[in-house]
Amino acid sequence: MKAYLIATVRVDDPETYREYTKRTPALIAAAGGRFLVRGGPVETLEGQDFNDRLVVLEFPSMAAARTFYASDAYREAMGYRVQSSEARFLLAEGVPDGVTAPDDRVERSVG
Q1: pLDDT, tens digit, for every residue of 50-104?
Q2: Cα separation, 16 vs 111, whole angstroms
Q3: Which residues of 7-30 are buried (b: 16+ CB within 10 A; e: fewer)?
Q4: Domain range holding 68?
Q5: pLDDT digits (tens, 9 = 90+) for 66-75
Q6: Are 80 and 23 in contact (CB under 8 A)?
Q7: Number of domains the chain contains
């Protein structure tokens, strides 16, 4: 089942952050991933205004996304991101094709 890595990033040093963005496309592709959203305008329709960078990646599976994130090559590239920004990375499993029924996994939020 497909998996999605969603990142919100507050970029503080664009020049150093560009060093990160130069390195990641090949690493993502090597893990079978692809960009669905990579920066660009984001419109807030509800809730607190969003002014950071949004990135959404699609991977063939949760395992493929985890392999990408844990790889030595990505960890090396990640150093540029850590130096130049504050980020939050989320990994979510997609839903099977054709799922339209009510979501039986709705639970009370914790924390």
Answers
A1: 999 999 999 999 999 999 999 999 999 999 999 999 999 999 999 888 887 777 7
A2: 34
A3: bebebeeeebbeebbebbeebbee
A4: 3-92
A5: 999 999 999 9
A6: yes
A7: 1
Task: Give bridge partners of residue 37 from the DSSP assignment.
Answer: 56
CB atoms within 10 A of CB 103: 8
CATH (domain of 62)? 3.30.70.100
Kindly provide the residue ranges of all beta strands, DSSP E only, lying in the chain, ordered along the sequence: 3-11, 34-38, 53-59, 85-93
Residue appearing with tokens 């039986």 = 104
φ, ψ for residue 43 (rounded to 5)? -105, 125
Q: Please report whether residue 107 resides in a domain.
A: no
Tokens of 22: 């130069």
